[in-house]
Amino acid sequence: MSENEVNPTISKSTGLPRKRFYRARAHSNPLSDSHFPVSISPSHVDYSRHYPQLFPSAGQADSSKRIQFADVGCGFGGLLISLSTLFPETLMIGMELRDKVTEYVKERISSLRVANPGQYQNVSVVRTNSMKYIPNYFGKGQLSKMFFLFPDPHFKEKNHRRRVISPFLLDEYAYVLEVGGIIYTITDVEELGEWMKSCLENHPMFEALTEKELEADPVVKLLSSATEEGQKVARNGGQTFQAVFRRIVPSDQTS
Amino acid sequence: MDSEPKKDIEVAPALIAVHPDQCSVAVAVGHHLRVFDLLAGSAVSLTDDSGASPFHTDNIRAIRFGAKGKLFVSAGDDKTVKVWSTQSWRCITSVSSEKRVSAVAISDDGTYVCFADKFGLVWIVDLDPPLHDKKPAPLLSHYCSIITSLEFSPDGRFILSADRDFKIRVTCFPKNPLNGAHQIQSFCLGHTEFVSCLAFVQAQECPQGLLLSGSGDATVRLWNVESGALLDTCEVATKAGLLESDGKAEDHDHAVTDLCTVLDGLLVAVAIQSLQGIILLSCNVSAKTLSVSKVVSIGGEAFVPTCLASPSTGTLWMVTGVSTLPGCNYPALARVRVISGIDVEQEPVIVGDDSIPGGEKLLETLQGTASVDDNAFLAAAEAVKTAMGHLLIKKQYPSENRESRKKCRNDRKLKG
């Protein structure tokens, strides 16, 4: 009615989008054909759309700065928001298959940008099927961190091939990660935790971080505390299982 | 509603392969595998000690010569891969796949055979020792995408796999590939539709070769496999005057179905859906460019090739045909034609049936009959095109009928 009419999907007190208007199903079939636009290649990713303040002009003039962190299956974006201020100089992106959830994260980022001028300019989100299109967004060795937090467990054996951590998909993750880059996984499902750990252990291009390295890494603490799923698990007093591995050069390739 | 498109999906195009020294020619139509010995001038009778007869029980989807002509491999919808010795034409190894096979490749030294299944997995078998019912090991995987083509790089360092999701993956071929090939060299990204075929251009100045790819987006592209860089794009359908230059290939009418290098890649023959003939591209290796050299139309009959093959000479073998044609009583329809004298300078010659290598005997062997029926082949090409569309083009669901589609959802049906 008046100009003061507020958008009901945005919370009056915080200015952030309200989750209940972005409810989505918990699962999405990664095997089905996708009908959202997909970047043809990493050089086609429009940085000016994702990071308008850092890339004011359209086109790809400034290729010096690339996305370095990818949160695969970012959900409601809790981790990204924490990382954004922890690594203000690093470009990061969330990838999510469910369109409503992606919309929520988009709104959340733009509200945060408005409320905190100059902040959260380094974070964005894209709706995509990361199991199919990771190489369309990142080039070889481009990423320094990849996150897989509380992925869909896909319990049935027949559906194991839908799991986001699998022996063959790790080949693609190893391709987009730089040598020394780190892959973070966490889940509250013990069986999946074992699975992710054994996939990574058996892959020739990954090695586990030592206890010491895990303690020194500030990001490890965020895995269980920053995400909505992690907080839910903590509220219910659940256990979490994490596997953090580094991308290495496979031993038979050292020349 | 379900039965009709299903029928289209099941048809398979006729395939052709030629021995690199033009010792023999093989044609596969449906489950039939026909081989003609050009040196002896007679049909080859294949033998399979495992006693399987016919050798394949469903549509053959991939055939090729390998290991410098010493081996031949055939595979398809019957989930079996058969490796034949081209000396004796005996099946030396057979492999069972869990899923239907869509592409095959043989390493140059003849040690390994790779094949891709319908779920995007690439498997590998070593041929030493050759045994029946060998167990394949998984090599690499495209995430649930149909792999359309597999190819070793000429130097053997890489194995390339092209898929329905517009991608070409270049993977380092490891020393012990039975443990899997985990190291990805590059992705060749740029096609905007399914990638249908791959071929390498070899040249002295470029020992690892340049890669050519054909796609449903009606283009042929040239790539550097080491970096994945796109070097040139040739809009073949537009250049050949099949498409208005501004007309997007929206209707997929001019998908590139096959590519074949002639004279070691000096020229590239391209087969396009709905084109009665072929397009010859010239590839300039030092400038890294592709351009249309000429369009060769095949006069006298309607001939839309479904598959191309060429030995190292300037001869191009072409086949058109389909495994089954609804409403037609020829079961395995095929038509073989040859273009000879392909060279940069001279005009290529379309060889008549009377002067084809191997003569009428060859035609009888490979086509199943020496006589041909024009209309059937046009219908066959059309059926192949529809089948390819169903298989490889992503279905579009307009938002208008979204609600009605939701009603048909399986989980809702149960409640209803």
Structure description:
The complex is a heterodimer of chains A (255) and B (416). Chain A is of the alpha/beta class. Chain A has helices spanning 47-50, 78-86, 99-115, 130-137, 167-176, 190-202, 211-216, 218-225, 228-235, and strands at residues 67-72, 91-96, 123-127, 143-149, 177-187, 206-208, 241-247. The longest helix of chain A has 17 residues, at 99-115. The model of chain A has no long low-confidence stretch (mean pLDDT 88). Chain B has a domain at 1-19 and 29-40 and 247-409. Chain B has a five-stranded mixed sheet with strand order 5-6-7-8-12, with no helix packed on it. In chain B, strands 1-2-3-4 form a four-stranded antiparallel sheet, with helices on one face. In chain B, strand 20 and strand 21 (229-234) form a beta hairpin. Chain B is globular. The model of chain B is unreliable at 1-8 (pLDDT under 50). At the A-B interface, helix 4 and helix 5 of A face strand 13, strand 16 and strand 17 of B.
Which tags fit this structure?
heterodimer; A: 255 residues; alpha/beta; Rossmann fold; 7-stranded mixed β-sheet; 9 helices; 7 strands; 33% helix; B: 416 residues; mainly beta; 5-stranded mixed β-sheet; 6 helices; disordered N terminus
